[in-house]
Amino acid sequence: MSAGEERDGPGGVDPPESVELPITETLDLHTFLPREVADVVRDYLDAAWEKGLRELRIVHGRGIGVQRAFDLDPFLLTFPQPFLSGVLETPGTVEIYANGVLVGRRPLQAGPFSLDGLGLSQGRNDLRLVLRDPFGGSRELSSASYYGSSSLLAAGLDEYALRAGLPRRALADDAYDHTPVLAGFWRRGLSDWLTVGVRAEAGEALANGGFSAGLRLPLGEVAAALAASEAEGTSGHAQAFSYLFTTRQVGLSLGVRRFSDGYRTLGQDLQSPLPRPSDERFASLGWTPPGRLSLQFNWADSRYRALLADRRRLGVDGTWRLHPRAQLVFGAARERAGGFDDTTLRVGLGFSLDRHSVNLGARRDGGGEGYDVGIHRGRGGETGAGYDLSLNRQNGRDFAFGRAEYQGAHGRYTLNAQHADGQGDASLTVAGGLVAIGGRVHATRPVEGSFVLVRLPGLEGVQVRRENQPVGRTDARGEVLVPGLLPYYPVRIDYETGDVPVTWRTGESSRTVAAARNAGALVRFDATPLRAVMGEVRLRDAAGVRPVPGGLMTLRCGQQEISLPVSSSGRFYVEDAPAGPCSVELRSGTTVARCEVDLPAAADPGVRRLPPLICPVPQAIAP
């Protein structure tokens, strides 16, 4: 299922026969049992209508496809950005402000300059360039307005997808047709103000194709699409036009779609509960003043070819922030559907208390009055426990729902229970994953996104952090698996240096890494045990034994030679010297002394003290 725009799903907890899903551009029905599909689609369509979506198509089956994924590069700017240029008489730092907010800072040298890739948001942006010179002075270079459109592609950028497969015969049927179908689209940004595209889909007795274009204006953007179909000897066509304008405080969208009687798509070959539309018009106006109030006005007029299927709706939704931790939501709508008029009123109060959030709501429509009460407690971290409790009354029926969840380092455990009209059921779900990386297999919670394996060889119990948030401690091998990362997005991994014993040497303590979707990366930090010896060297001559007044000592242990200083009191310190007998050569001023020393093997990290090393009477070296 695809939607004309991306919205959040219905809030709260639905009755047991409903399925709570976020409304995004795609609904994958393969995750549901065949007997559940019809209810899922019906409730999904109702929720989508309440959210203002006016384009819903159902195409599901089995197949393969290829698609360009922009999320492979999280820093890729896919929609057009302004290009600013000028000339600087003196070097300095240029600050870029959009709608009064600092969005970038670039150091520049004197002479011509150009700025692009500013990462501006969608909608109208009032830009200001301010130059700050090395002496602390500032002046405004220029100001301009730019309208950013996220529905357009940057100049030269392509987006495409091609899929082929077998469609399902019916929504609630797990059988598939033997005749394959094909669907695909291609879009390209011809310039920063124009994007064009084509789309096509075909089946055994259906061919559908169309053209689309998006145009950026100084104030807003317009989009148009034309399509034609041929199905079983019947031809049809469709047109769609829309306009969108957004600023920080105001958002306006207008649109109209028309479909001829013979127009068909792949989705309409299924037993869809949605009647075929003939004419749709909609308008939406959002207003968010600087205060605590925000309002959204919606109007829609949809006409269908089925008897008494026309729907008209006029509504308003609002949010009022009562407190940083509390807000009031409200809405009213007047709708005419199936020849009947209905008025819906709803109000809700939500507030948060640390890890807990509470929602209270009431609703009244043609079916009667209803209420819902819910409390939620989040896990509060990568591991921990949380729960959801909800009571709901709709159309004279009461529903209760509860969920408890615990997520540990190696799995996720969820208990669901629900009760409705004297009947109830419960379920327990245990989920986990196995990943192979770094020569080992690790048990973990379900792999969602990507993961990294952090390795500090031999160091156990060291706290590892992701973006300064603790995510686990290293095991006996000095490893910890960090799941739940955003694919392809760089993340900073570091560890608590205070957990490293003083008898260990480490290098850098933080690194930035990115991993592909459903894949992992190995982050290895240098860590080696410190094995050292220290002692005191003395000289023996006819007058007796005396300290060495400083110098240079050379140890020759097999093929390895180590040079180290000797302090004025005759003390020396050496790290990572091999165990066993070594020859010693000591130079102090014009004196050279030689002797032997047996370095002990150090099983554990640390510094071992040797007994005094006494070298025989040296011989003098002529200056």
Task: Write a structural description.
With 623 residues, this protein is an all-beta fold. Among the domains are: 1-53, no CATH class; 81-148, Outer membrane usher protein (Immunoglobulin-like, Sandwich), CATH 2.60.40; 437-529, Outer membrane usher protein FimD, plug domain (Immunoglobulin-like, Sandwich), CATH 2.60.40; 531-620, Immunoglobulin-like. Helix content is 3%, strand content 59%. It is built from 1 helix and 48 strands. The strands form 10 sheets. The protein has a 19-stranded antiparallel β-sheet, with no helix packed on it. Strands 39, 40, 43, 46 and 47 form a 5-stranded mixed β-sheet that branches. The chain is elongated, with a radius of gyration of 35 Å. It starts with a strand and ends with a strand. Mean pLDDT is 81; it is low at 1-26.
